[in-house]
Amino acid sequence: MNLKEKLFPDSRLGLDRFWNFSRGGIDNFRTGLRDAVSGVEQTRSRMMEYDQLLVWAVLSLMLIGLVMVYSASITLADGPKYANYSSNFFLLRHVISLAIAVGVGIWVFKIPTKIWDRYSPLIFGFTVLLLIAVLIPGIGKGVNGAKRWIPLGLMNFQPSELMKFAAVIFAASYTVQRQEYLHSFMKGMLPMGIAVALVGGLLMAEPDMGAFVVVALIAFGILFLGGINAKLFGGLIAVGLMSGATMIALSPFRRGRMLAFMDPWQVDNAANKGYQLTHSLMAFGRGEWFGLGLGGSVEKLHYLPEAHTDFIMAVIGEELGFVGVVVMIFLFYWIVRRAFIIGRTALQLDRSFAGLAAKGVAIWIGWQAFINMGVNLGLLPTKGLTLPLVSYGGSGILMNTIAIAMLLRIDYENRILMRGGKL
Questions:
Q1: How many angstroms separate the CA atoms of 25 and 33, rounded?
Q2: Helix (H, G, I), strand (E, B) or coil at 147
Q3: Cα separation, 308 vs 289, whole angstroms
Q4: How far does Cα 2 stand from its chain's mean position?
Q5: Helix (H, G, I), strand (E, B) or coil at 149
Q6: Dihedral angle of Cα 34, 36, 38, 40, to the nearest 10 degrees
Q7: Contact in structure between 172 and 353 (CB atoms under 8 Å)
Q8: What is the DSSP annotation of 250-299?
Q9: Taking the domains of the chain in order of start, what are their residue ranges?
């Protein structure tokens, strides 16, 4: 015992207590730090459980669309058709639509994919009822001679947009359940053909031929990817082409549009059926390589009808030029590519419905974007289809976002299974 311990006999006990307390504090600190790092790693892991580049591509299209809708619609209040509207009217409505769509999309992301599989027939049947309801006087709302909307206060809901989503999940579920009959006309293709024909008849009564084309492409595209007999599919394509030609031949309005598409610069066409197309082409020509800059479009000044909806790509071409158009095409290419990869991964994990549904979303977004761009560039006859995630239109934005949310959910579930987890 040293002098200090003799003089202060309790000091050693105090030091031992202090040391034990300090060591316990250090151990607690280490445990807390370890838990914090583990929490950060778990949060980072959860953040990596969805396709971040896909999300950024979608958000980029939404933001570009927000800016371009405002640019294309800001002068509409100067014309007689929208004289009672403010210059910010379409911008505010578009912001509300985006907010609703993102909120609903976050909720849809939480829904397991198997729920969509289970209730797909009910959703399809409910959407058919909505397509019937929109044709009933007093329920459906008409715009420019077409009855396609049901007023819901904050937005006018378009059942044909919901039908595109319903077609994705219904066709995917049908293909999985009828896998053994896909080589049979009566049991494999005919029931789906009857369902598509029913939907087509209702859509043509609105009329909305563009939506009918997209729904048919989704349904039969999923059947093709699911393994339908090649000869049956070839016959289906032939029937579809003949049906389209018949509808064009029997309708003076559609026949006039087709003739205007073939020669839009002919004097009578340029002033009538080809008016939109000629002004769309002039917008692209004025844009050249780098565009006239935001707000610099001349065609949106009451020359190009529906510049904020069906022909927003022409305004993008005029204000952002060839470079802006290429960026838009790349963003859509990326979304479609990722959707097909997510679908392929799901099929490799024996998730047939999820895989076909993901590829159905790719068909939907890809074909509708292609048709809209083709119409704007004069590669396809004029058709009333919006540019997904970009054009003004609450129903379109909402259903596109729901489809993307379901796609992200499929990817999320794929990643869980690939890590060895359970759904």
A1: 12
A2: strand
A3: 22
A4: 82
A5: strand
A6: -150
A7: yes
A8: H-HHHHHHHHHHHSTTSHHHHHTTTHHHHHHHHHHHHHTTT-S-TT--ST
A9: 52-418
Place of tokens 């999300």: 55
Instruction: Return d(Cα 249, Cα 254) in angstroms, integer.
Output: 8
- What are the start-end ranges of the H helices in 48-156? 52-73, 89-109, 113-133
User: Which two three-digit tokens encode residue 345?
Assistant: 């991964």
d(CA 150, CA 169): 23
% of the chain beyond a pLDDT of 70: 87
Backbone phi, psi, residue 344, to 5°: -65, -40
- The rounded distance, in Å, linking the Cα atoms of 258 and 239 is 20
Helix axes 312-348, 352-376, angle to 10 degrees: 160
Hey, what are 230's tokens? 């090649």
Q: What single-letter amino acid sits at 3?
A: L
- Average pLDDT in the chain: 85
Please report the pLDDT score of residue 69 as a whole number. Answer: 95
The mean pLDDT value for 254-265 works out to 77
